[in-house]
Specification:
224 residues
Amino acid sequence: MEEIIEVMALFLGFTGWIMIFISLQDQYWKESTTEGSVITTSTIYENLWMSCASDSTGIYNCRDFPSLFALPGYIQASRALMIASIVFGTFGLVATLVGMKCSKIGGENYVLKGRIAAIGGCLFLLQGISTMIAISWYAANITEQFFDQFYPGTKYEIGEGLYIGWSSAVLAICGGACLMCACKLNTPKEKIPYPYQPSSRGRLPPTVVMSPSASTNYDRNAYV
């Protein structure tokens, strides 16, 4: 049963790790809204790295953000968190492969392998939490600007890239939780045997065994 849970956790963590790259490559993290517009001639969509625009004929043009320090703080933070989630996921996959019970990597020291698998579960949890914070922070700024009636700039809606990121975070958190549960089930609950050492109190004095000759002499002296 534990092996099945570990394999499932590895699959969930690996799928979430792959979906991070898919989310980062997706250009539709936010898309300009058509709310209140009668005629829409162009659509603007962005992600963490570039901004694109397309017209009604299907022609589009993309440009990278020119300066890192000119970007808003939430975009810089989201970039850092997404890169950190990739790093966490990479080390989590390696630790899980080494610590799995059905894996021959790392020998047959199952106590050590269980601890390594637990570390892999923690890394998967950190991967999911980092992705969730980055995606949710980015989406919170989109909704804040959308519902602000005095916001002068272009308003955007949540794009498909954010939904992919949310799915990645959920899968990674589920994988880490499953791996931690499997490691908890693998923990041995055996009592350590200790040799019995009786205390000196209450101990009966040693029995003195008398020799037959001594017993005979004692009997003779008793009748003198």
